[in-house]
Amino acid sequence: MTTTATTATTAPPASTDLLVRAQHFYAHQMQHLDAGRFEEYAATFTEDGEFQHSPGVDPARTRPGIVRELVDFHRRFDGDPVQRRHWFNHMALEHQEDGTVRSTVYALVVTVRPGGKPDVAPSCLVHDTLVDGPEGIRLKSRRITHDQQF
Amino acid sequence: MTTTATTATTAPPASTDLLVRAQHFYAHQMQHLDAGRFEEYAATFTEDGEFQHSPGVDPARTRPGIVRELVDFHRRFDGDPVQRRHWFNHMALEHQEDGTVRSTVYALVVTVRPGGKPDVAPSCLVHDTLVDGPEGIRLKSRRITHDQQF
Amino acid sequence: MTTTATTATTAPPASTDLLVRAQHFYAHQMQHLDAGRFEEYAATFTEDGEFQHSPGVDPARTRPGIVRELVDFHRRFDGDPVQRRHWFNHMALEHQEDGTVRSTVYALVVTVRPGGKPDVAPSCLVHDTLVDGPEGIRLKSRRITHDQQF
Question: CB distance B28–C7 less than 8 Å?
Answer without folding.
Answer: no
